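Today's session is about reading a structure prediction critically. Students often jump straight to the picture, but the first step is always the sequence itself: look for stretches that repeat, for charged clusters, for runs of hydrophobic residues. Only then move on to the predicted structure, which in these notes is written as discrete structure tokens rather than atom positions. Here is the chain we will use throughout the hour.
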Amino acid sequence: MNDILIIGGGLAGLTSAILLQQNGYQVSVFEKKKYPFHRVCGEYISNEVFPFLESLNIGISESAYSRINHLAITSVSGKILQADLTMGGFGLSRYKLDHLMYEQAKRLGVEFIFEKVDNIVFNEGKFQITTPGNRVYETPIAIAAYGKRSNLDQKLNRSFFYKRSPYLGVKYHIKTDLPGNLVRLDNFQGGYCGVSKIEDDKFCLCYLSQTANLKEYSGIPEMEEAVLFKNPYLRSLFKNSEFLFKSPEVINEISFEKKTLVENHLLFCGDSAGMITPLCGNGMAIAIHSAKILADSIMHFAKKGSGIDRIAMENEYKFQWEKQFALRLRSGRLIQKLFGNTFISDLTVSTLGKLPGITQMLVKKTHGESLKY
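Below is the predicted structure for this chain, in token form.
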């Protein structure tokens, strides 16, 4: 029986696995896909986690990432707001970053089980995790880091699963002529699109749209032309870029509802615990930071050979998570309401352009302090 089983091998799962394995725990990770692979993600990462990633020895400094320190926001009508990013960030694809972390986890001895998890049950101090074919794995500590939404959420009867999830996410990699230090957010009716440079002179183009937009058209290309192209910046971007995927990466039913951090002793981490709106560009940093908080809580209250103080561990994790992220997620949900609507986004961009101090305050509300390690 392993010390810890982690469901999901994204940023939160991989960060948890590396930290816990480094500190003497035997960790296994369940992941459905083989690395490397693409994920729907904006691929902009706040610099708050860069020194921490360096400390994991994954080779982040040699990864040809881009440095990003400037923000532009455009309205549907074509107005533009520009601002410097004080903390800034960097661009690196999930295809590359996740693979770097996976390779380091393997070097440390983390076991990877490339299977889907069908069910998870807690009974008499142990979790039983079932995979297809009714194979059962047991562990005293289980981490759910499987992302934004899963069938497991339904089986676990998580309340957010039954609430309306009106968004879909679409991602491309492109080659285009934009400044390498820029992250640009382009509004359209019912959504917004982010574009920023990643590695190898490529850019990530990723947008969030209300699913109602897609229902009105026969497919994604038709929706893009009818809805996104009304923003002249987006029209120019799509018309003057080389698209590198045969078809986009797409994810449906994205939810920004508040989620629980612990249910029946199962510990949720990353997007499974709560998502910041993509407009704020900090989902990747929060996933990494939340995994650090969870690993610290486990190492403090479930020391090897000393038993598990489960309630204290869970309470500490919830306290630290709320302290670090609750305000950021609330701020993100509020800021998102200012965009994705033709009239409101136009008014917001015009107003914030005259109030640079307010713009910087809103940016700061969605960023954290540098992660200590």
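Discussion point for the tutorial: The longest strand covers residues 80-91.
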